[in-house]
């Protein structure tokens, strides 16, 4: 019980009897005041009102529509002359075009021919049996891919067959990707291969780095997937600086190829299949996770 220094007991005081001239209801209001002798003024709670949920949902929907319209004006995907999608922002003005963009490449040789020449010059053109490559890639998908899933095996194998037959050069296959997966698979290989340099994983890693230098002139989705794998491989080899470098490169190329954008409009107008759009999304998030 709180006693005032003047002798009044404010908690038991009958305000109606002490101040009969007060209007009805005022005395009861005094009872609810937390009396204090400090200099602070009584704090009155503000009345809160529940907003109409339907109006909130409607407002959010309008905001989403505005954001979507602004995003479309800020950037879009365009097909470059190498057949790859590129993301162009508003400052380039190229996002307003509806036709393929012509770019000037200072090298005109196909990627595979330039890569083969570099392999010969680097003395890395050892013959590798197709069965061994298939085995190492299977080891990669069995032991490493579940940790950081970034490659769709079905799509990869389909495009690999077309690439080897010379009938297609797809964005979902590259030599860099193949060699990077073989490098990781070689870490789990128990058999020896005397006709190939040792350690086997470093041999394939060197080939992946060589082909990466060639592919960076015209990167593709498979290049980004390879960079994610190479980043993990370098980290596992205690070369952290190079590992972070590759993960950062994969993230930057993901933005360059527009993997971060909504693919639904491009699927609807027939520019890509729903499966391709899904793989692009998986590649982006795989790159994002590894880079964190």
TrEMBL record:
In the record, biological process GO terms are: DNA-templated transcription
Q: What is this protein called?
A: Putative Nitrogen assimilation transcription factor nit-4
Q: Where is this region: Disordered?
A: 38-63
Stored InterPro entries: Transcr_Regulatory_Elem, XnlR_reg_dom
Q: Where is the composition biased (Acidic residues)?
A: 48-59
From the Swiss-Prot or TrEMBL record, what is one GO molecular function term?
DNA binding
Keyword DNA-binding carried by entry: yes
Question: From which organism does this entry originate?
Answer: Glarea lozoyensis (strain ATCC 74030 / MF5533)
Segments of skewed composition (Basic and acidic residues): 38-47
Q: Which PANTHER family match?
A: TY1 ENHANCER ACTIVATOR (PTHR31313), ZN(II)2CYS6 TRANSCRIPTION FACTOR (EUROFUNG) (PTHR31313:SF77)
């Amino acid at each position: 019980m709180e006693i005032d220094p003047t002798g009044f007991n404010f908690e038991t005081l009958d305000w109606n009897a002490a101040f009969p001239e007060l209007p009805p209801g005022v005395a009861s209001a005094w009872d609810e005041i937390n009396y204090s002798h400090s200099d602070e003024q009584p704090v009155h709670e503000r009345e809160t009102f529940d907003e109409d949920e339907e109006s909130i949902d409607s407002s959010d929907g309008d905001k989403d529509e505005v954001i979507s319209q602004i995003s479309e004006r800020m950037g879009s995907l365009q097909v470059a002359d190498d057949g790859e999608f590129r993301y162009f922002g508003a400052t380039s003005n190229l996002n307003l075009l509806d036709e393929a963009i012509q770019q000037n490449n200072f090298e005109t040789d196909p990627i595979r021919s330039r890569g083969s020449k570099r392999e010969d010059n680097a003395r890395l053109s050892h013959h590798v049996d197709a069965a061994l490559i298939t085995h190492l890639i299977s080891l990669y998908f069995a032991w490493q891919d579940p940790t950081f899933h970034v490659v769709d095996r079905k799509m990869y194998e389909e495009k690999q067959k077309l690439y080897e037959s010379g009938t297609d050069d797809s964005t979902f296959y590259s030599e860099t990707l193949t060699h990077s997966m073989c490098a990781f698979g070689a870490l789990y290989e128990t058999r020896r291969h005397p006709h190939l340099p040792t350690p086997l994983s470093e041999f394939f890693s060197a080939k992946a780095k060589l082909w990466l230098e060639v592919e960076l002139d015209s990167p593709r989705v498979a290049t980004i997937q390879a960079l994610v794998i190479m980043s993990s491989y370098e980290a596992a080899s205690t070369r952290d600086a190079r590992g972070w470098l590759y993960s950062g490169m994969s993230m930057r190329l993901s933005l360059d190829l527009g993997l971060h954008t909504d693919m639904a409009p491009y699927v609807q107008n027939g520019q890509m299949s729903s499966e391709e759009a899904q793989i692009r999304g998986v590649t982006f998030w795989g790159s994002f996770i590894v880079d964190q």
